[in-house]
Write a structure and sequence with these properties.
58% of the residues lie in helices and 5% in strands. A three-stranded mixed β-sheet has the order 1-3-2. A two-stranded antiparallel sheet has the order 4-5. It folds into three domains: 4-120, no CATH class; 164-291, no CATH class; 330-394, no CATH class. By secondary structure, it is mostly helical.
Length: 399
């Protein structure tokens, strides 16, 4: 069988030199990735190219002991198409195999599937649609920016930690990210920024409206929309407050704006991006410490598990590093202990009504949310662990 590296050298020889120079390890790895024939069954994912990868993601969780067979079967029912598109390729991360619909697949499709296997990540942090690592690959290949494999890995780490972080931790992550960017820009004489409280101020300073909802102060925001210092002061004083469930969305929006800034040469977001990537290793380290002080080096922690996702999940959940490593052969035990069992003991929910997510810690099935809302309304004084409160709020269930 032909390998991905052979296919690139045969169809896109100009990319061979670029990849050897810019992403040497990834290109070397491409000789291990085998191309298998396209099958009709792959076409079932045409309405949404993520479906197959979501299924494979669940399979890998099953194989790594993070979910049971029953949870796997039930989770499959909740994978459904969200938009119309045609799958150009399919990747099998564990087996290091890919398949392409076309005999001459576009280079973008080849690199997309290769990236999934090389980095062992799903679409939420890899796909360029979401501002994932693939975006940095293409920006580098088109010479609109210059990133390394380390940059891509750190960017995906940070994205995943944002996606999985408990809601109660997101505000601190937001503040620390803003602090790094402000200090960098001031040190480079790119202007003195008053903003030091929230990415919201950075987004507004660049002339972008944030896609968030507010707990209070939305009228003040628009009243002072052109006075960024005033807005930042109001944020600092707690007069403008973002709904906690929107912090995650705001942070991801900011990263997407940075990617677009490089793509379309927007000076504001290019400066933000230069600051972000310059300090990205420290940003990841700080974020890791906020979420889980027991983990000093998340890169080393990842090496204990087959998938980076498992390490990121336990980091966000706040599980002690030694306990997580001791259960690496049966990680589901930890999730049972800290999530499923407390939920089932304290609330009217069955553990199989909770789904391990790749873009949030736990997804609560829609038919369960009304039951939980009703129960919490009738029991307003119920005492719940903070992680349970965070998961409920992340699923739009107010505690």
């Amino acid at each position: 069988m032909k390998t991905v590296r052979q296919l690139i050298e045969e169809l896109y020889p100009d990319y061979k030199e670029k990849l050897e120079e810019m992403f040497p390890n990834m290109y070397k790895f491409a000789r291990q990735v085998e191309i298998i024939p396209w099958e009709e069954t792959f076409q079932k994912t045409d309405k949404n190219p993520e479906i197959f990868q979501q299924i494979e993601f669940l399979q890998m969780l099953l194989e790594n002991g993070m979910i049971s067979e029953e949870e796997y079967r039930k989770s499959l029912k909740y994978i459904h198409p969200g938009y119309a598109s045609i799958t150009k390729g399919i990747s099998f991360i564990k087996d290091k195999k890919v398949a392409f619909r076309d005999k001459i697949p576009p280079i973008t499709a080849i690199l997309h599937e290769l990236g999934h296997i090389y980095f062992k990540e799903d679409d939420y942090v890899w796909n360029s649609v979401y501002g994932g690592g693939e975006s940095l690959l293409h920006l580098t290949l088109t010479q609109k920016a210059s990133f390394t494999e380390k940059d891509i890995k750190n960017h995906m780490r940070f994205m995943r930690l944002i996606l999985l972080a408990p809601i109660s931790k997101l505000k601190e992550i937001d503040q620390q990210l803003t602090k790094y960017i402000r200090h960098h820009m001031e040190s480079k004489n790119l202007g003195s920024l008053s903003v030091n409280n929230s990415v919201l101020s950075l987004i507004l300073a660049a002339g972008t409206l944030p896609g968030v909802e507010f707990e209070e102060g939305e009228d003040l925001l628009y009243e002072h929309i052109y006075d960024k210092r005033k807005i930042d002061l109001l944020i600092k004083k707690g007069k403008i407050v973002i709904k906690s469930s929107y912090y995650r969305q705001m942070l991801i929006q900011f990263l997407l704006e940075i990617i677009d800034g490089y793509q379309y040469q927007d000076p504001f977001y290019q400066n933000y991006g230069n600051a972000y990537f310059y300090h990205l290793s420290d940003i990841v380290k700080t974020t890791t410490k906020i979420l889980n002080p027991s983990i000093q080096n998340i890169e080393e922690f990842e090496k204990e598990f087959e998938l980076p996702f498992i390490a990121h999940y336990f980091t966000a959940l706040g599980i002690n590093k030694n306990e997580a490593i001791s259960k690496k052969d049966n990680p589901l035990e930890i999730i049972e202990k800290y999530i499923f069992t407390p939920f089932s003991n304290l609330l009217p929910v069955d553990r199989y009504e909770l789904i391990i997510g790749s873009n949030k810690l736990i997804i609560i099935k829609s038919e369960v949310t009304e039951r939980l809302k009703d129960y919490l309304n009738k029991n307003p004084n119920i005492q719940l662990p903070q992680i349970i409160k965070d998961i409920l709020e992340d699923n739009n269930i107010k505690v």
